[in-house]
Amino acid sequence: MKVLIGGYTKKTSKGIYELPFTGENSDSRLGKAENIVSIGGPTYFQKDDDLIFAINNAGDKGGISVFKVNESGSNEVDRYLTPGSSPAYVGINRDKKWLYTANYHTAVLSVFRYNDSGKLDLITTTTHKPESLGPRPEQADGPHPHFFDETPAGNLVCCDLGNDTVDFYRLENNELKHLAQYKNEAGFGDRHIVFSKDGNYFYVVGELSSKINVVKFNEDTWDFEDIATYKTIPDDFTEHNGAAAVYISNDGKYIYVSNRGHNSIAVFKVNDDHTLSLVQRVSTFGDFPRDFNWDESEKYLVAANQNSDNATLYLRNTGTGTLTPIQKDIEVPEGTRVLFTK
């Protein structure tokens, strides 16, 4: 097993790094980070077998690049770049070979198809408009899509930080058809979203509010019911914080949210009525944890600290949901995206 970490390339990072994973349980360790993909600003990426689909910040252009990776290294097989900033998120359906990108700066959502060799085909795009911009300074300059991926029923969903909205789409005749919209409180700053295992609830994280909102919804009628909202940071924490990544365990019992500023991961238990109970806030032992992720068994979790150039390895208790740090100060530069791989 290995861990891939990529992020910004503003200081010393050269792109995506691979860290070997050895040992078991509390003796598990991550080894030295080795650069395997050289690319500008791979702040998010996905993997399908030997293909890596990475955000590419190529100076005055931005987009995604596809790399084929093997034991001897990596080579770029295709790219799609447009003038301006690069996207913030890449979603994937490996069965259908679809890619979805959300561009925070240009407000463009894109859908791609790819083949076995990694060649890209742009299917369609749509651009968010400034329909309900929030009151915070980060929202004043327009819509900011930060997430674009699939729903449990196979529709598409976008979180828009600028508009404080969750927007739902369907791909019809290679065009994106807008289906519905859920509006969060002003200044919420929608960033990322996960769904309950029965597909009847979603949990959306607000970056600007440091909150997670539980919503019951029907993907046939598009009815929404606001269930509850919870802070991801302590009430007495007054310094700047931006909530970031959110993951839900495969059994649907626990939700995890990273806090950039408070520099922690908040662990919530999902109750029978889908309300949440705080289980733990655990330090990431670094500064600005944008992303974290776990292995297939969800026994091991790695958080990357962007500003302090380090990562932390945890052992996860699958019964209680709690995280126990077992390795700190793992050197990796400017990490913003974590992905376990075989």
Explain what you see:
By secondary structure, the chain is mainly β. It has a single domain (44-341), classed as Methylamine Dehydrogenase, Chain H, CATH 2.130.10.10. It is 0% helix and 57% strand. The chain has no helices and 29 strands. The chain has strands spanning 2-7, 15-22, 29-30, 34-38, 45-48, 51-58, 61-70, 73-83, 89-93, 98-102, 108-114, 120-127, 145-150, 156-160, 165-172, 175-183, 190-195, 201-206, 211-217, 224-231, 242-248, 254-260, 264-270, 276-283, 291-294, 300-305, 310-316, 323-331, 335-341. The strands form seven sheets. Strands 1, 2, 3, 4 and 29 form a five-stranded antiparallel β-sheet that branches. Strands 5-6-7-8 form a four-stranded antiparallel β-sheet, with no helix packed on it. Strands 9-10-11-12 form a four-stranded antiparallel β-sheet, with no helix packed on it. A hairpin with a 5-residue loop joins strand 23 (264-270) and strand 24 (276-283). It is globular, with a radius of gyration of 19 Å. The mean pLDDT is 97.
The CATH first-level class comes to Mainly Beta
Total count of strands:
29
Range of helix content: under 10%
What are the secondary-structure elements, in order, as H or E? EEEEEEEEEEEEEEEEEEEEEEEEEEEEE
* Radius of gyration, taken over Cα atoms and rounded to an integer in Å: 19 Å
What would you give as the CATH superfamily?
YVTN repeat-like/Quinoprotein amine dehydrogenase
